[in-house]
Design goal:
The complex is a heterodimer. Chain A is built from 14 helices and 2 strands. By secondary structure, chain A is mainly alpha-helical. Chain A folds into 2 domains: about 60 residues; about 290 residues, no CATH class. Chain B is globular. Classes of the chains: A mainly alpha, B mainly alpha.
Chain lengths: ~375, ~160
């Protein structure tokens, strides 16, 4: 009996350690990235960025946090109090939960589950409901419009996001993130890692996955849900103070989760790029890859203007979805033509053929035509 | 341990289901419906059916609940209106419950101890879907593709006018 009780206690404590480590690492990363993002954007726009608080402005997140905490929390009089209150909590909880199944290093998966990839997407799908709760609970037209936009684009891009994961799952034969990382652990000539991004289908799927992830986390080229020039701040319009900060946190946590999954699926997870470099701890490699992807997120934000809603939708259904299915077929071709140079060429041919045909088909119709309105003139 | 969890999850699930049936605001009812789906998936997890639990969340919270919410939003104009509780509707669940209870109490197979079944892994489900059940799987695929094309045709027709 005592053995049973201590086993239970051990489990509870190990869970607590996992949760503590996860929250500690990612909240620190969130604080860091929030100041780094402003610094990098500043660099790209020829200005300094935050540089007042602490050395190089590094304590800026502390100042931001204190400011957010002591701000007044305003709830609209006609808002649905319970739904308005729950939305930011659910959205942040979901984002943090999906971080739990990613292998951060050798034997460093916080939550080992056989269907880890499925868990990631299952939990992530609750985000849509939370965004909707925020929009509807605020009882504000801007909020509602923002929520509708967010849900529309999230549902559209969830399809390519999940279908681009399929080829990896097919080739590895498992939904377990640890096994997916293990399958990419070998090296050719001890310098060429067997990462899936280095195969044609993997490269295509990685790009599609990254773009879909960008949309799912409502980041800049696709941030129409909170387009401040049109609908104030979308579903976050009626949130202030710490609740707004929670939305902000959830956005970044979602970004970390999607990038972490991209690293796990395509960039070899925690494996080193060369077998000589394996003496560097595995989690260093993981977070190095993660920060490269996060830098690309910030870089895109500094580079690209916001897309239009109809452009986003057209892109999802006319380009992303067919290309995602092509990745599945190309992966099958790669597998059946022997997973070597010959397979590489064949699967490249499949992807190139579909890509060229698709772009020609999309090209023939109206080129950069002005938008036609159906209900307004 | 697992018994206590079962009781707690069941109470939460039932409470959410009851709330979905009785809450005056339609949107609150839809949201507690989603909570109920979460409770059911927790029960699946408790039974060791990981895959079914995850699919339950994925489909019912990620798709069905969002669909319900959208449907309410796009069809109803009196969202804020507080509607009374329809007691007549209570007859149907009571009748279903009574019928099921009667059937369950009458059957003898409950007392048979369950045979030792190995836990169903995702891998095993995948193998079965690709071997024994490949024909139904293909049929479902064709059906879904037809539905997708049908939806597209509906949208196209509307645009032509």
């Amino acid at each position: 009996m005592t053995g049973h009780a201590s086993g239970w206690l051990l489990q509870a404590f190990s869970s607590l350690i996992n949760i503590g480590a996860l929250l500690g690492v990612f909240l620190t990363l969130f604080a860091l990235i929030s100041v780094l993002e402003r610094k990098i954007l500043g660099r790209m726009q020829n200005r300094y960025g935050p540089n007042r608080v602490g050395p190089f402005g590094l304590f800026q997140p502390v100042a931001d946090g204190i400011k957010m905490l002591i701000k007044e929390d305003i709830v609209p009089a006609r808002a649905d109090k319970a739904v308005h209150f729950l939305a930011p909590i659910i959205i942040a909880a979901v984002a943090i939960l999906s971080l739990g199944v990613i292998p951060y290093g050798r034997n460093m998966t916080p939550f080992v589950i056989d269907g880890g990839i499925l868990f990631f997407f299952a939990v992530g799908s609750a985000t849509e409901l939370a965004v909707f709760m925020a929009g509807w609970g605020s009882n504000n037209k801007f909020s509602m419009l923002g929520a509708m936009r967010a849900i529309a684009q999230m549902i559209s891009y969830e399809l390519p996001l999940i279908i681009t994961v399929l080829p990896v799952v097919m080739i590895v034969g498992s939904l377990n993130p640890d096994k997916i990382v293990a399958a990419q652990g070998a090296y050719s000539f001890s310098v060429l890692p067997h990462w899936f991004v280095l195969t044609p289908w993997g490269a295509a799927a990685f790009i599609l996955f990254f773009v879909s992830g960008l949309v799912e986390s409502n980041r800049t080229p696709f941030d129409v849900p909170e387009g401040e020039s049109e609908i104030v701040a979308g579903h976050m319009t009626e949130y202030s103070g710490f609740k707004y900060a929670t939305f902000f946190l959830a956005e970044y946590m979602g970004m970390f989760a999607v990038s972490g999954l991209a690293v796990t699926l395509f960039l070899g997870g925690w494996h080193a790029p060369m077998s000589i470099l394996e003496f560097i701890p595995s989690y260093v490699w993981f977070f190095l890859k993660l920060s490269i992807l996060l830098f690309v997120y910030i870089w895109l934000r500094g580079t690209l203007p916001r897309t239009r809603v109809d452009q986003i939708m057209n892109f999802a259904w006319k380009f992303m979805l067919p290309m995602a299915f092509t990745c599945v077929i190309a992966a099958a071709v790669w597998h059946y033509t022997g997973r070597a140079l010959q397979g590489w060429l064949w699967s490249f041919a499949v992807i190139a053929a579909v890509y060229v045909t698709l772009s020609m088909l999309l090209e023939t119709k109206k080129k950069f035509a002005p938008r036609t309105y159906r209900f307004a003139e | 341990m697992s018994n206590a969890a079962f009781v707690i999850i069941s109470i939460l699930t039932l409470a959410a289901a009851l709330a979905a049936a009785t809450l005056p605001k339609l949107m609150h009812a839809a949201l507690s419906f989603a909570v109920m789906f979460l409770g059911i998936s927790a029960l699946f997890f408790l039974l060791g059916a990981e895959f079914v639990g995850l699919v339950q969340i994925f489909i019912y919270i990620g798709a069905v609940a969002v669909l319900i919410v959208f449907t309410i939003l796009l069809t109803r104009h009196d969202l804020g209106k507080v509607r009374g509780f329809n007691w007549g509707g209570g007859v149907v669940p009571v009748a279903v419950f009574g019928g099921l209870m009667w059937a369950i109490l009458k059957t003898k197979s409950v007392s048979i101890p369950p045979p030792h079944i190995q836990p169903v892994t995702v891998q095993r489900i995948g193998e079965l879907l690709m071997t024994s059940y490949v024909w139904p799987l293909m049929c479902v695929g064709v059906l879904l593709t037809t539905a997708l094309i049908g939806a597209l045709i509906l949208v196209l027709e509307e645009k032509r006018e």
